[in-house]
Write a structure and sequence with these properties.
Elements lengths: L2 H4 L23 E2 L13 H8 L12 H11 L6 E4 L2 H12 L5 E6 L3 H9 L3 E6 L10 H7 L4 E7 L11 H13 L3 E5 L24 E6 L12 E5 L1 H10 L7 H13 L1 H25 L11 E5 L7 H10 L2 E2 L1 E2 L10 E5 L3 H15 L1
Parallel strand pairs: 1-10, 3-4, 3-5, 5-6, 6-7
Antiparallel strand pairs: 2-8, 7-8, 9-12, 11-12
Helix pairs in contact: 2-9, 3-9, 4-5, 4-8, 10-12
Length: 369
């Protein structure tokens, strides 16, 4: 029997998801395709890792209690409201495996993070997409969404800030959606992985509200905020009953001893590192917008956070061509064709510090010329 026939039918033709942040494999390329803390990994990370090495001779705490307690303190919830994951991608995997059956139907926005689709399809879940439109500044249309929140919908996925568009929806808007979904028996998976690098994120996050709902799960991660994608540490925050069900699916010892130690120390002692980066990024994002407008780059409004998503069809080139030209000048941007055929002319690029941005913008001017 052919090996493809041995695989489950739901995954036989399923492609692997595509992500940015791959420029580290290339020489002399500055990576603007990811969206990480521009300060890079903290210099004190070495000390934290070294101090945790002595604990690797025994099994890690399966409950990740120290890490979960640090997360709970940061988001004003209890440790029982938190589940640890190997990055937020682990929480994204747990959710459909816990709450969705093959044949169930969920709603997602497009473009958005590809792992939601991937993990739902692996579970045999049907997906309906709601298009985020440029004329609406890529923001959620409440009326359109409400019409689609019908009785056969099991879950709604929201990414805030949305990846790749970068738009941040206010807390009141998100919670109004959660309220409507609660009334209709629909679960809400709210991904706030990128939110901590948005200036004033505490006024936007819904994590501290999970105790007021039976249907809300908030996912987060240290990957972006501390620029440590090579150390997989994430978390989910929800009501106690939801966390209890997720723990039945969570892989035993999913977070290693070193990762737990790093996560606990970073959140408990070093969130100022993230806050300082968010303040810098707000300033530099506005500066970048002014420069982009001045050179005639097709950007409509300043980004809400720290990365831009733009349709470049007015430049007379598709995303692949633009990416290639930028790479020839030493900079990698994200080709957003992987988000679907509607986005072959769209690119995403992040914001960094002033000096690095100056070189990036100079390269962009050369490409436009």
């Amino acid at each position: 029997m052919d090996i493809n026939e041995r695989a489950r039918q739901t995954i036989r033709s399923l492609p692997k998801t595509v992500h940015g942040g791959q420029a580290w494999k290339l020489d002399n390329i500055e990576d603007y395709s990811h969206n990480l803390n521009p300060f890079g990994a903290p210099t004190f990370l070495d000390e934290i890792v070294a101090s945790a090495v002595s604990s690797v001779w025994h099994y890690p705490d399966d409950a990740s209690l120290g890490f979960r307690t640090a997360v709970a303190n940061e988001f004003d919830v209890e440790p029982e409201n938190v589940i640890a994951g190997a990055g937020s991608s682990d929480i994204i995997r747990m959710f459909p495996n816990t709450f969705l059956e093959p044949g169930d139907r969920v709603l997602m926005f497009t473009p958005s993070f590809a792992e939601y689709t991937q993990q739902c399809k692996i579970c045999g879940v049907g997906i309906e997409y709601i298009r985020l439109r440029e004329e609406n500044d890529y923001r959620i249309d409440i009326e359109e969404l409400s019409e689609k929140l019908t009785s056969d919908v099991k879950a709604l996925y929201i990414c805030n800030p949305n990846n790749p568009t970068g738009r941040v929806e206010p807390r009141d808007k998100i919670l109004s959606i959660v309220d409507e979904c609660e009334e209709k028996g629909i679960m809400v998976f709210l991904d706030e992985t990128l939110l901590e690098l948005v200036d004033g994120y505490k006024d936007v996050s819904c994590a501290s509200y999970v105790g007021e709902y039976t249907n809300l799960l908030v996912a987060g991660s240290l990957t972006k905020s501390f620029a440590i994608p090579g150390i997989r540490i994430g978390f989910g925050i929800s009501n106690v009953d939801t966390i209890d069900q997720l723990n039945k699916v969570r892989m035993t010892w999913n977070i290693g001893a070193i990762e737990q130690a790093v996560g606990e120390r970073l959140i408990a002692e070093h969130m100022d590192y993230v806050h300082d980066a968010a303040t810098l990024l707000r300033k530099e994002a506005d500066n970048m917008f002014d420069e982009l407008k001045d050179m005639g780059f097709p950007v409509n409004a300043p980004c809400d956070g720290f990365f831009y998503f733009c349709d470049i069809s007015s430049l007379g080139m598709d995303a692949g061509t633009f990416v290639s030209k930028m790479k020839s000048h030493g900079y990698m941007v994200r080709d957003c064709s992987s988000f679907g055929p509607d986005f072959t002319n769209c690119v995403r690029f992040c914001v960094k510090d002033n000096e690095t941005n100056a070189g990036f913008l100079a390269a962009m001017r050369k490409v436009l010329e």
